[in-house]
Amino acid sequence: MRIARFASGDDVGFGLVEADSDTGEDYVSRLSGHPLLGEVKLAGERAKLTDVRLLSPVLPTKVVCIGKNYTDHVEEMKNVTGESTDEPVVFLKPSTAVTGPQDPVFHPSVSEQVDYEGELALVISRPCREVPRERVKDVIFGYTVANDITARDLQKKDKQWTRAKGFDSFCPLGPWITTGLSIEEAQDLALTTTVDGEVRQEGRTSQLIHDIPEIVSHVSSFMTLLPGDVVLTGTPAGVGPVREGQEVSVSIEGLGSIDNRVVSRD
Q1: Are strands 26-32 and 11-19 parallel, antiparallel or unpaired?
Q2: What whole-number distance in Å separates Cα of residue 157 and Cα of residue 164?
Q3: pLDDT (tens digit per residue) in 101-145
Q4: Omega before 108 cis (within 30°)?
Q5: How far is Cα of residue 29 from the mean position of the Cα atoms in its chain?
Q6: Cα–Cα distance between 16 and 45 in angstroms, integer?
Q7: Distances (CA, A) of 150 to 15, 83, 239
Q8: Which strands sit side by side in the sheet containing 114-116, from one edge to the other?
Q9: What is the rounded (10 degree) CA torsion for 112, 201, 171, 113?
Q10: Start and end of every Fumarylacetoacetase-like C-terminal domain (predicted)?
Q11: Residues 172-199: pLDDT tens digits?
Q12: Of 3, 34, 49, 60, which has the fewest CB atoms closer than 10 Å, so is most exposed?
């Protein structure tokens, strides 16, 4: 299933995205309740997907991110972040960094280099901690597309990543949460990032150094994950800067794409 969070007029809610059986056009059917917090059912309202505004598919309490998780990306970034490590490199983005699939990304005036990083993200289904590898499948609600926007010059200057990764709008998510994928399926998807239509990143989630079970097991060994929390799994090689006015698109096979234009906050 594809579960979106959307706005229609002044109303915000969750909906099931499905293609019309006759036309193939995508529609969203409103759901009652919250898909992560209890039982939901169809509310009877239906609209064309093009007539609503897609929002970030979830509002997490935190976004947990994994750095240096593709070998080629480790190599291209070794002068900034160092070599790879035996354990996953973990950092956080605040919930205020989360934005939607068509929303602007704001270029901070204090940064001279803002980079894109297309990533596979997973959404946690229930409170969990100390999850063994074999149980990780039981705590994943679904998967979505993410862009780990980074002020690269500040990352290098600060020697740690909080400010560089944490600006408002620096975590576009969407366009929806795709459920029903096995971990094995999620770990063999094509990922592509373009800037103004030009391909900048091409990779597959099969190239992850630390796989999804290892990531969730490791993170949950020292922090409790809550329903709706988002875990970013890392980015492949090809990261680079975007300027104000440019549009970044991240697409993942079977999950959809998110498009965000970089703008000045002024």
Answers
A1: antiparallel
A2: 9
A3: 999 999 999 999 999 999 999 999 999 999 999 999 999 999 999
A4: no
A5: 23
A6: 11
A7: 31, 19, 10
A8: 150-151, 114-116, 240-242
A9: 0
A10: 62-263
A11: 999 999 999 999 999 999 999 999 999 9
A12: 34
197: left (phi over 0), alpha (psi -120 to 50) or beta: left
> Could you give phi then psi for residue 216, rounded to 5 degrees?
-65, -40
Q: Which residue has the tokens 């290098």?
A: 156
What does the alpha-carbon distance between residue 15 and residue 27 come to, in Å, rounded to a whole number? 9
Nearest CA to 177 out of 96, 67, 248, 258 is that of: 258
With contact defined as beta carbons under 8 Å apart, do 220 and 212 qualify? no
3-state helix, strand, coil split of the chain in percent (to 5) is: 20, 45, 40
Among 163, 146, 145, 143, which Cα is nearest to 154's? 163
Structure tokens, 141: 């609600």
Kindly state the tokens that stand for 17: 């995205």
Residue 240: CB atoms within 10 A of its CB come to 14
Q: How far apart are CA 209 and CA 28, in angstroms?
A: 36
- Specify whether the CB–CB gap between 231 and 124 falls below 8 A: yes
Residues counted in the chain: 266
Task: Name the residue with tokens 């994994």.
Answer: 66
Q: CB within 8 A of 33, min separation 6: which ones?
A: 14, 39, 40, 41
How far is 203 from 206, CA to CA, in rounded Å? Answer: 8
* Domains in the chain: ranges and CATH: 2-54 (2.30.30.370), 63-264 (3.90.850.10)
Does pTM top 0.70 for this prediction? yes
Q: Residue 117 corresponds to which tokens in the numbers above?
A: 């990083």
Place of tokens 């010059």: 153
C-beta of residue 250 within 8 angstroms of C-beta of residue 193: yes
